[in-house]
């Protein structure tokens, strides 16, 4: 079995070096690793180099490879109690400090994809894995840092994936919450819903983690999503349209879980602060746009034209969607 593990490591490493090429070799190698790990976990557990390659496969371009590597990581986590992780000599996460951060970073990258690339099964696995990771980060924060890592001052700036060293070394959970909050601030209902489900899972399944210090980071994108959904609903009512999916349902459920977990008083204080900051930002944007109309009418005209074009494209998409729905209903009627 050790020989098989080493051979799979070489094959998997070779497939990763050709990320842009065929994905089949990587996918079927991961499937073999998954089966070996289920039948005889020690054969895989001892091969730390293989685990590093599995971690890299979490961000493989093909979704099937991502899904298998996520299942392997989930199976790996289910066999461990985060409270006992520090004492597990020989464990990959203990022997390779910084690996916990690498896994969390790659899982966040799975969630941070465009709407058409979102896969529900993959998002669910990412959430399950992040729940275990946030517990481990709270109990063993030192395992998130590689002592041989480059100094934080020499690392490049990145708003999408800020280096862990730029946050407090005593609190890697702060980095994770900041990363998830930034992902959920972007547009895209499925991306946001995945992050909000992650926040809800933290609230319901992570008793070891005190969420109060991170309430603002979680509430800010949730409040934004609810505000935007409310605005869309007002426009639909104005035009007497109905839409089946209410984008505010999951954010509101996540808010309720956070309130139950963190206490009503703390929750309401943070929520009021977030809403106040959001109103201030909106008013500031309105003032900037109004000033631009006076100081730079040409730029204001371009902004107005862009807004009209976006609205035009939105109407076209809505008409096309309705045509597709009518066409589907017509086909069903003819078949019956």
Commentary on this structure:
The protein has helices at residues 2-16, 24-39, 41-45, 48-57, 63-78, 92-95, 99-111, 120-139, 172-185, 189-205, 215-238, 249-262, 264-295, 297-335. The chain is built from 14 helices and no strands.
Structural class: mainly alpha
From the alpha carbons, calculate the radius of gyration and give it in angstroms.
Answer: 23 Å
For the termini, the CA-CA separation is: 56 Å
**Helix tally?**
14
The percent range for helix content is over 70%
Low-confidence stretches: 150-159
Question: What is the chain-wise order of helices and strands?
Answer: HHHHHHHHHHHHHH
| Largest sheet entry | none
The averaged pLDDT comes out at 83
Shape: globular
Total number of beta strands:
0
Query: Proportion of β residues?
Result: under 5%
Topology:
Blueprint: H1 2-16, H2 24-39, H3 41-45, H4 48-57, H5 63-78, H6 92-95, H7 99-111, H8 120-139, H9 172-185, H10 189-205, H11 215-238, H12 249-262, H13 264-295, H14 297-335
Helix pairs in contact: 1-2, 1-4, 2-5, 5-8, 7-8, 7-9, 8-10, 9-10, 9-11, 10-11, 10-12, 11-12, 11-13, 12-13, 13-14
């Amino acid at each position: 079995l050790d020989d098989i593990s080493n051979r799979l490591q070489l094959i998997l490493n070779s497939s990763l070096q050709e990320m842009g090429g065929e994905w089949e070799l990587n996918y079927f190698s991961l499937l073999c690793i998954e089966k070996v790990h289920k039948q005889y976990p020690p054969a895989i557990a001892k091969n730390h180099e293989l685990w590093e390659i599995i971690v890299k496969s979490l961000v493989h371009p093909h979704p099937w490879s991502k899904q298998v590597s996520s299942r392997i990581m989930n199976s790996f986590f289910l066999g461990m109690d985060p409270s006992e992780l520090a004492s597990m000599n020989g464990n990959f996460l203990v022997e390779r400090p910084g690996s916990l951060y690498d896994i969390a970073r790659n899982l966040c990258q799975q969630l941070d994809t465009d709407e058409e690339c979102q896969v529900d099964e993959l998002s669910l696995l990412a959430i399950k894995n992040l729940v275990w990771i946030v517990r481990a980060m709270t109990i063993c924060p030192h395992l998130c840092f590689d002592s041989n890592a480059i100094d934080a001052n020499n690392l490049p700036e990145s708003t999408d994936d800020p280096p862990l060293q730029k946050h407090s070394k005593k609190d890697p959970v702060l980095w994770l919450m900041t990363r998830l909050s930034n992902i959920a601030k972007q547009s895209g209902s499925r991306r946001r819903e995945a992050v909000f489900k992650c926040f809800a899972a933290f609230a319901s399944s992570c008793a070891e983690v005190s969420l109060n210090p991170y309430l603002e980071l979680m509430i800010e994108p949730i409040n934004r999503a609810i505000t935007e959904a409310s605005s869309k609903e007002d426009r639909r009512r104005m035009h007497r349209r109905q839409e089946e999916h209410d984008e505010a349902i999951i954010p509101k459920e996540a808010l309720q879980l956070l309130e139950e977990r963190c206490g009503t008083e703390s929750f309401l204080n943070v929520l009021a602060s977030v809403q106040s900051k959001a109103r201030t930002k909106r008013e500031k944007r309105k003032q900037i746009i109004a000033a631009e109309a006076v100081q730079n009418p040409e730029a204001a005209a371009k902004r107005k034209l862009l807004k009209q074009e976006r609205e035009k494209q939105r109407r076209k998409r809505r008409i096309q969607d309705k045509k597709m729905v009518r066409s589907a209903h017509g086909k069903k009627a003819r078949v019956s």
